[in-house]
């Protein structure tokens, strides 16, 4: 006799909720082990590469654990929108997910909220005066969502802009921290993000010691915010070194 598919789906949903509750209880404990074996203050291994898309003015590919992102930059090119002459250029950002980027198939789509956040994170770092009355388009595509998506997108986009020769005050690096009770966990996975009490994300220009964006969700004490910011800024500084090494290798390889 055939089973009812809807009954099976409901059972799976109930099991998923139960597992999520169990993980949340585990994460609230003082000591627990991260699924990938990292310490609480250890970031995922980062793989960065420029020149990932030949048709673009500049591009980059980033892989942080299970999170995989590719960013293509086009321009500067003449702005299509009718506009009065401006001494500064325009920056357009678009973030989208592939249909196979998450465990639930078919959810890939444009992510307007992330597109806006990416724009805010990058705008302060780009010297817009160097391309007046023109537009630079940044297209980010998440190939696989494994947690900490937005920080990886921002970091990869900054590298793609540098690859395109867009003038910037400094490279932009981004890192997030999740809060679990008394514990702070840097560079969370999607499993950890699903159970977090709150998150803090910083986007900064490490060489200039300037923050271009700060995002905070959940309830935080002032002491925890300060601790999380220090963790993020230190990680951003180290990430920027990896980004510079990537650009130097690309430059030496093309010469």
From TrEMBL:
Residues 42-166, 170-231 form the Exoribonuclease phosphorolytic domain. One of its GO terms (molecular function) is 3'-5' exonuclease activity. SUPFAM superfamilies: Ribonuclease PH domain 2-like (SSF55666), Ribosomal protein S5 domain 2-like (SSF54211). The keyword Transmembrane does not apply. One of its GO terms (biological process) is poly(A)-dependent snoRNA 3'-end processing. Belongs to the RNase PH family. This is (wild Malaysian banana) hypothetical protein. It comes from Musa acuminata subsp. malaccensis.
